[in-house]
Design a protein that fits this description.
The protein is mainly alpha-helical. It is built from 15 helices and 8 strands.
Length: 508
């Protein structure tokens, strides 16, 4: 019985082990099948991805091939164009060489003709010498010297006539070209004109404010005049006071300070200093901004900040009633147009025109010549040599060394000398005209002299019996030089010397 139980247990164990093995084997088989499926799926995905990469690589290769083909065609086209250009140049060179050969042949022909003429001339001279020897009993050397003297005189007169004719032609062509350039410049630019006064008028809310501005025992008005550097005129005119000064910058600051004080109502020396400092800072910023706006409008860049600030300050400077900034802008635009017409650098001419009077921004504070001050500033801040030459040249300190400098000089004269651009005191104008006429009348053989065209021109009449045409030309230069040395004037003065011969007969 016990053996049967043991046997049954053994059999059960064996059967359990077998069943377990079978279950394990089946599970392992299922796991293997699952792993196999996953491996196949991954292999399929990898294969698909490889196919995609292959397709992309093929497409990229085709794209690069197309790009290379297009680049090759483009280079081929350029090469063909270059070849055609070279062919054209070669043909032009061949034509030029042929033309040179023709000119050389013509010159050789002319040279041969000249040699023939020289031989004929020498033959004629020899014949004349022999004839003179026979007729006048002259030696050969004396006759030869006489003939050569006559030939030289005749040649000199012919050369002088040719030179005069070509000088007249060049003068006419130059005047036509200059008039065309000036016409182009003036018609393509029309500037505004604003006259500057010597006083500013400030309107007050009431006459009570006049007493506040004067202050107790005049302390306020004394503080204002001392601090602002202007004259304040308070008269019986109701509701207004006058601010007077030749310095536009100081006058503008003073006007703004007084306006702020009147609006605020608190007027005393301490408040005056406080408002003055604030307004000065505002004006410094305003002048810099004004200079920047000018450069932006003209399209000029790369200028030093100090020059930009001084450029804006020209708004508060005037010469003969003409605003310095307005004049500067006018010169810059006119110079640009003239330089363009003459084949120069437009931007450089405009820059030189913009800076030609930059020294005027400091002359009222520093004194001295605005030409020297402006040139020194531009040299210090690295401006172009043409700009510096234009500053010197526009008042005759140097000769213009470029088209751009010449354009600035012409534009400066055009802007300053045109009618209405500037005004001056009648007394100084009368004095200048009288000085010009006196200089002309002081010269020998001058009979009359009249200053016309607002002092821009003088006509001088001379004794025709005592002066020749050559003397007249020299006299006009002498008068012009003496006027330039002794008389202060804006723009230029034209000197016309007139020599007239009259023949009078009476019929009876």
């Amino acid at each position: 019985m016990t053996g049967i139980i043991v046997l049954s247990t053994a059999v059960g164990t064996v059967l359990g082990a077998g069943v377990g093995y079978l279950v394990f084997a089946r599970n392992a088989q299922r796991r293997y099948a699952h792993l196999e499926k996953e491996a196949k799926a991954k292999a399929k995905a990898v294969s698909h991805e490889a196919e995609l990469l292959l397709q992309e690589a093929q497409m990229e290769r085709k794209r690069k091939a197309l790009e290379l083909e297009a680049s090759y065609e483009e280079r081929l086209t350029k090469l063909e164009e270059r070849n055609r250009a070279l062919i054209r140049k070669r043909k032009n060179l061949e034509k030029a060489e042929e033309k040179l050969r023709e000119e050389e042949q013509a010159l050789e022909t002319k040279a041969a003709h000249l040699e023939l003429l020289e031989t004929q001339k020498q033959h004629e001279i020899d014949k004349a010498i022999a004839k003179l020897q026979n007729v006048a009993a002259l030696t050969q050397e004396e006759a030869k010297a006489y003939i050569l003297e006559k030939v030289e005189e005749q040649s000199r007169s012919e050369v002088a006539a040719i030179v005069r004719r070509y000088e007249q032609t060049a003068k006419e062509e130059g005047e036509k070209r200059a008039n065309y350039i000036l016409a182009q410049a003036t018609t393509r630019y029309a500037g505004e004109f604003a006259g500057e006064r010597l006083i500013n008028l400030i309107t007050l809310p009431s006459d009570e404010h006049k007493g506040r501005i004067i202050g107790k025992e005049g302390r306020n008005i004394k503080a204002l005049e001392m601090l602002l550097g202007v004259d304040i005129v308070i008269d019986e005119t109701p509701g207004v006071i006058l601010v007077s000064s030749f310095n536009l910058y100081r006058r503008a600051i003073a006007t703004r300070v007084i306006e702020i004080l009147v609006e605020d109502g608190r007027i005393h020396p301490g408040r005056i200093e406080e408002v003055h400092e604030k307004v000065e800072r505002e004006f410094e910023e305003k002048t810099f901004e004004e200079g920047q706006n000018v450069l932006i409008d003209l399209g000029i860049y790369g200028m030093h900040e100090e020059l930009v600030r001084l450029l804006g300050r020209l708004k508060y400077r005037a010469s003969y009633g003409q605003n310095a900034l307005a004049h500067t802008l006018e010169v810059a635009r006119l110079a640009r147009v003239m330089a363009a017409e003459m084949g120069g650098d437009e931007k450089l001419a405009m820059r030189a025109g913009l800076l030609h009077d930059i020294g005027k921004a400091l002359t009222q504070d520093m004194g001295g010549s605005h030409v020297e001050i402006g040139a020194e500033l531009c040299q210090r801040y690295g401006e172009h040599p043409t700009v510096i030459n234009a500053i010197y040249a526009h008042h005759g300190h140097e000769e213009p060394d470029s088209v751009e400098s010449a354009a600035v000089c012409a534009a400066d004269t055009l802007s300053a000398a045109r009618p209405g651009a500037r005004r001056e005191v009648l007394e100084s104008f009368t004095k200048r005209v009288k000085e010009i006429e006196t200089i002309a009348l002081s010269k020998p053989y001058v009979e009359k002299a009249y200053a016309i065209n607002a002092g821009r021109e003088i006509r001088v009449f001379v004794n025709a019996g005592k002066m020749s045409d050559n003397d007249v030309a020299l006299l006009s230069k002498e008068i012009a030089k003496e006027i330039a040395d002794k008389v202060q004037f804006p723009g230029e003065i034209k000197v016309n010397v007139i020599r007239e011969t009259r023949a009078v007969s009476i019929a009876k």
